[in-house]
Amino acid sequence: MAYFLVYNLYLLDLDWREDRIGQIAAAMTLGSLAFALPSGLVLNRFGLVQPLRLAVLATVATLLLRAWLETPFPLMVLAFLSGAGISAWMVTAPPLIAALTDNEFRPRAFSLTYGISIGTGALAGVLVSLGSRALQSTLSPLATKRLVLTIACTLVLGSFALLGKLRAALQEGAISFPVALSLPSFLPQKLNWSFLARLFPPLALWSLFVGSFPPFFNVFFQRQFSQTLESIGILFSMSQIVQASAVLLMPWVVKSAGKVLGIALMQICSALCLGLLSGASGVWSAASVYLLYLSFQVMCEPALENFIMDSCRTEERNMFSSVRYALLFFVQAVAVWLAGTTIAWFGYGFLFSLLVGVGVLAPLALWLSFGRRKNDRPRA
Predict the structure, then answer these.
(1) CA–CA separation, 32 vs 13, rounded Å?
(2) Is residue 232 a contact partner of residue 10, using CB atoms and an 8 Å limit?
(3) What is the pLDDT averaged over residues 86-112?
(4) How far apart are alpha carbons 144 and 212 in whole angstroms?
(5) pLDDT reported for residue 326
(6) Which of 56, 207, 212, 225 is a Cys-bridge partner for 335, taking CB atoms 3.0 to 4.6 Å apart?
């Protein structure tokens, strides 16, 4: 979290504009796309943990190099490679959570997982803010950001040891998963292609919405409101705390409104809040609207993950997760590149207007695909 909070500001210190920053973000997303579908096959062949541990090491190495290089082409290559590593754990997380939980607890498990992740992001924002304040008297802004990026990379290595403990628990029989299948058995067998076909339109639209502005939020507050790294770190921590609280409410929303309607309502609220951001006149009003926009957006994610995992059989989960993230990364690679170009040419207000329309179309497509089903309960 700390790394990606600081990295775009690091690129700004290198005198990069939003269009080139968008190209770097797009390269990372393309790397995630390239490994998304193979991830499902790798997980079926080698299990859920060992590929994830290797991905952590590769991600740390590439992120560390990105913090010390300044030339565009090597940075784009490294962004592609780090995106591939990040995609491994993103694809692995939903089937792992689904395997560890039963139908009753699963919605809360997805929300808790997202909540814990967001909570650590709040801590990251505080540490970045305090660290930048302590270092700014002795280091240049560029050197300060580079040091923060380096420290963030070393902290990621702590997850490597934790993954080893998870692997031991899996081997003791806490859950079961394929570990030594022959080649024919880990290739895609029968998938529910009808469900995937109905899922593609709403998921593509929602991926376009969530992949466009968030990578530029720190650049937005620095460009539009002249906020420092310290102030942006505080805002980031506030956003993580609000998101963590909001995401824990999503199981209640799903229970009250149903999975599909609950997701659709939060998507609409997020889109409308983003539309208000372009009219914000000061940093406090902009920050308040931004917090609401993010809160509604993040509430959708665990519910959407749970909905997809509950809509497939156990043996389909790895491939469903791979297909879902392949589509997500493909759309977001295009989205972040287009967003950076749009901001550079037309400004943030024009981008927000376009995204409001996309954000409203996504829940409409979701409802047309799944909202008219009589049974909105998880599959056994």
Answers:
(1) 26
(2) no
(3) 74
(4) 27
(5) 85
(6) 212
Cβ(371)–Cβ(265) under 8 Å?
A: no
Closest CA relative to residue 239, chosen from 289, 201, 202, 309? 289
Give whole-number Cα distances, 7 to 46, 61, 132, 203, in Å. 33, 15, 13, 27
Provide the token pair at 140. 């240049």
Structure tokens at 32: 């995630």
Alpha-carbon distance of 358 to 352, in angstroms, equals 10
Q: How far apart are CA 215 and CA 208, in angstroms?
A: 12
Summarised one tens digit per residue, pLDDT across range 243-276 is: 888 888 888 888 888 889 999 999 999 999 999 9
From residue 281, give the alpha-carbon distance in Å to each of 165, 225, 227, 287, 288: 50, 10, 14, 11, 12
Rounded Cα distance between 92 and 53, Å, is: 11
**Cα–Cα distance between 60 and 114 in angstroms, integer?**
22
Count of residues in the chain: 380
d(CA 260, CA 369): 10
